[in-house]
Amino acid sequence: MPTDQTAPLTTEAAAPKTSAIENELPTYRAISNRAIFSVLCGALAAFSFAEIWFLVFAALAVGLGISAHLAIKRYPDLLTGRQLANTGIALGLVFGLVVITYTTVMTIVIAREARKFAVTYAKIIKEGSLGDALLYRLDPETRKERTAASMEQEWEKQKARERGLAEQKLGSLILLRKALTPKDAHLDFVSIEAQGVDTERIDRLGYYAAVLYEVENFDSRYAPRGGPYALVLFKGTQKGGHYGWYVDNIQYPYTPSTFRMSGKSIDDGHGHGPGGH
Asked: pLDDT, tens digit, for every residue of 159-206?
């Protein structure tokens, strides 16, 4: 039986042969590096609760996440990782906003509490005894166990043993009290020059506040090197809703806006403590 040599090829014969496995394999897409780094930065932003500068990672997490989304949208056949980018953005926003809100609130609260203590301490300096002033150099818990009289007795004993060193240690405090000798002299709160977390505390979270005072109607004999300003460094801790403060350092006379927080507080009576001239 003759065959039709001119008959067209069937569709199956004409179609190129392809592998069934090859047809089932999806196109490979790489995970966006920006999405990966966004998640890593978001995780690092959690440390901003301990150190505020870690907020940089919160901003990076959001920025890299958005950038990753744009890149994936532009090259959908080459890149993937939208979920990672979303996670990075979420972490950055959550940690960043929470820490910023917490820091702002704490700054306001600490400033308010420090100001209250500053007003109380000004009265102690002006109207109280030397023992009262010394008592406020102790932390609140220790202060409960001591008295102004015992502090003054301890000071007298120390002065008898090492007069020069003792007077040098409390030089600014003594000088300030002498400057306030006139009846119409008084110590006025001006502002808080600096405040923050006390990194020296290891047992609990602590704070510090550098408070600027102005000495009004002072005895000029006791401010030989400068104007009518004193700076007192308060430190404290929070227990529940209560803030307990104590005096860490005094600088008198003091030039406003020269305070610098250092790792160790020293009051040598000549303005050479933290932030000294």
From this structure: 778 766 767 778 899 889 999 999 899 999 999 999 988 877 655 668
173 & 233 share domain? yes
Q: Residue 147 falls within a domain, yes or no?
A: yes
- DSSP letters, 193-257, are EEEEE-TT--SS-EEEEEEEEEEET--GGG-TTS-SEEEEEEEEEEETTEEEEEEEEEESS--TT
- Closest to 213 measured CA to CA, from 233, 234, 185, 191: 191
Measuring CA to CA, which residue among 260, 192, 190, 183 is closest to residue 228? 190
Residues 145, 238 share a domain: yes
In 3D space, the residue among 85, 104, 91, 77 whose CA is nearest the CA of residue 33 turns out to be: 85
Q: How far apart are CA 7 and CA 128, in angstroms?
A: 120
Residues 221 and 187 in one domain: yes
CA 216 and chain centroid, separation: 33
Residues 214 and 226: their CA atoms lie apart, in Å, by 12
Residue 143 sits in the same domain as residue 238: yes
